[in-house]
Specification:
Blueprint lengths: L1 H44 L51 H4 L4 E9 L15 E4 L2 E3 L3 E4 L6 E7 L8 H14 L5 E7 L3 E8 L2 H7 L11 H12 L7 E7 L11 H11 L2 E7 L11 E3 L2 E3 L10 H11 L3 E4 L5 H15 L3 E6 L7 E8 L7 E3 L3 E4 L17
Parallel strand pairs: 5-6, 5-8, 8-9, 9-12
Antiparallel strand pairs: 1-13, 1-15, 2-3, 2-14, 4-13, 6-7, 10-11, 14-16
Helix pairs in contact: 3-8, 5-6, 6-7
Length: 404
């Protein structure tokens, strides 16, 4: 009987050993495939315009950042940023140079919807009231943005957990780009633990669509770092209206250069519209235990499985934009609908310019916009502006000529 038991234990031990060896072999094969895939991706995306360096990278270490000036695009072609020649009926209405250079001048994007959620686009300047720190200020510049071009940055999460979602994200972003104003200048960044600039600013949207084919999921998520880089990059866009679209499915797990507080502060300062699409359940448990090996996460995954809706909502709320949460993974229709709504909203807004009081003091000023004659309407606008800083030095928003 004891001999039989010993034989049984030996057989079980051999099976366990075989299973362990098989597991190790599978993991080793997976790691080898990941390394080769990473090398292939680096060959595709590792061109001078695909990996980049930023203002915060001077602290040592190997940090990829976005360039201060548009880099040469694939094949060494000059960046497509030459001045645009307005077509009949397409002249861009911008504030005068004198107004833009006035101390304390700032602009905000205003979105107005009725009780049914439909956009209200026919308001006049005198129907809108603007308050800075609770005091009404006169509106110095007013524009309906139906035809106003936008500088847009697209930031796509390509961490390992995005692997099954990449095809749908690619299709939705392609639709987003197709629906943009032909004059919009766009850049595309893929990010995991570091950012990859797949396409610098261009008005040739076909180039952006081609670069979507480079999206490749691996690694962890440096969400704060890439949003900070995106804000600093889109600030240099040619138009006065600027927006970011962030597509992600997780929490920040790899940022080293920026905290959420710093990102919110920068978003407040610049006033870039930060739209976001979160893919996943914001209420998923964060107590799971997972081990990350390259792009693979063994175990429940914890934070990797939970979309950071709070951060996305905060950034959108601070800048007057909007966050869309796609709770059901694989819902491609909802993802495409979110992209479509964002494109539509960018054409259904107003740009309002004003001069903040006491600009020499500088600092953050709260902003509120109302439509008194229509109290049932909902008004969305950034929560405040920073005066006395770099925001006063606006780039030429027309990409060429300037009104007096």
């Amino acid at each position: 009987m004891m001999r039989a038991n010993r034989n049984l234990i030996r057989r079980i031990g051999r099976r366990i050993g075989s299973a362990a060896l098989l597991t190790v072999a599978v993991l080793a094969a997976g790691m080898l495939a990941w390394i080769r895939g990473g090398e292939a991706f680096a060959q595709q995306a590792g061109q001078p315009n695909a990996t980049i360096i930023s203002p915060q990278s001077q602290q040592g270490g190997t940090v990829l950042e976005l360039p201060r000036t548009p880099a040469l695009q694939g094949g060494g072609e000059p960046s497509n940023l030459r001045p645009l020649v307005p077509q009949p009926g397409q002249e861009l209405e911008i504030p005068s140079r004198q107004l833009r250079s006035q101390a304390g001048y700032a602009q905000v994007t205003v979105t107005v919807t009725d009780s049914a959620g439909r956009y209200v686009t026919g308001l006049n300047r005198d129907e809108i009231k603007l308050y800075v720190d609770g005091t009404q200020r006169s509106i110095e510049f007013f524009r309906r943005d139906l035809k106003a071009p936008v500088s847009v940055g697209i930031l796509v999460d390509t961490s390992g957990s995005m692997q099954p979602k990449i095809p749908q994200a690619r299709a939705a972003i392609a639709q987003f780009v197709d629906d943009l104003n032909p004059r919009d200048d766009v850049f595309l960044v893929a990010f995991s633990a570091r950012p990859f600039l797949l396409q610098g600013f261009t008005t040739d949207h076909e180039r952006v669509l081609e670069r979507l084919g480079l999206l490749h999921a691996e690694g962890r998520t440096a969400l704060y770092d890439v949003i900070m880089d995106g804000l600093l990059t889109v600030e240099r866009g040619r138009y006065d209206k600027k927006a970011l679209l962030v597509v992600t499915d997780g929490m920040d797990t790899a940022s080293r250069r920026a905290s959420i507080e710093q990102v919110v502060e920068e978003a407040r300062r610049l006033g870039v519209l930060v739209y976001s699409i979160g893919i996943g359940d914001p209420n998923a448990s964060s107590t799971g235990f997972g081990i990350a090996i390259g792009p693979f996460i063994l175990g429940p995954g914890g934070e990797e499985e939970r979309v950071d809706a709070k951060t996305l909502d905060t950034l959108s709320g601070e800048t007057g934009a909007k966050t869309f949460i796609i709770a059901r993974v694989g819902d491609g229709a909802a993802l495409r609908n979110a992209c479509e709504q964002i494109t539509l909203e960018l054409r259904e807004q107003y740009t309002v310019g004003f001069v903040a009081p006491d600009p020499e003091i500088g600092g953050y000023r709260s902003v509120k916009v109302e439509v008194p004659a229509h109290p049932d309407m909902e008004v969305r606008v950034r929560k405040g502006v920073t005066v006395g800083g770099r925001e006063a030095a606006m780039a030429d928003p027309a990409g060429g000529g300037d009104p007096p």
